[in-house]
Amino acid sequence: MRLIEDPYFKLLGLPNIEYWEGGMVSFRGWGFLGLVYGFIGLTGIQLLARTVTGDPAYFQKHLTGLGLVACLIAGLLCYVTGIWLNKNERKQWKQDSRPGKFLLGQSTGKYKTLIPMNGRHQLMSYNLEHWFVIYIFIWALGVIAGFFF
Question: Which regions span the lipid bilayer (predicted)?
């Protein structure tokens, strides 16, 4: 586990953003919420199904439908949170209409070519709001794997 400073934000004089890199999971900012929302979605649906039906194995018997609901809940939470958290970063890059450029100083008017960073809150290099699609993809892989096992 190590923390790394972001060189682009240092160049721009913005507060440092630190990555957490350890093992197979890396996140930036509040990106770890993607994992938390996945846990909340799966355990929440499982507990709700167990409470409503009284059958402890109901979730496993109806994994396709309930798994989709759990992934939709996790994905929607990621999408809404990601849009809300990353909205300020998007406004920052809209100050200049030329792609890959950012106005460094208004008094000097000099531009510096940078690769635009689409958001500060990422999980495994994907913005938090993109995890909606990833959770649906994970559900689809689970359904396909269910046919073979």
Answer: 30-49, 64-85, 130-148
In a domain, 69, yes or no: yes
Give how many domains the chain has, as a whole number.
Answer: 1
Q: Is the pTM of this model over 0.85?
A: no
Q: Is residue 20 part of a domain?
A: no
Instruction: Write out pLDDT tens, residues 36-80.
Output: 999 999 999 999 999 999 998 898 888 888 999 999 999 999 999
Phi and psi at residue 108, to the nearest 5°:
-90, -30
pLDDT, tens only, 109-130? 655 544 445 567 888 888 888 9
Are 99 and 116 contacting, i.e. CB atoms less than 8 angstroms apart? yes
pLDDT of amino acid 26 = 78
Within a domain: 104: yes
Q: Are 60 and 53 in contact (CB under 8 A)?
A: no
Domain that holds residue 104: 33-142
| Cα dihedral sign, 24-64-66-128 | positive
Does residue 111 sit within a domain? yes
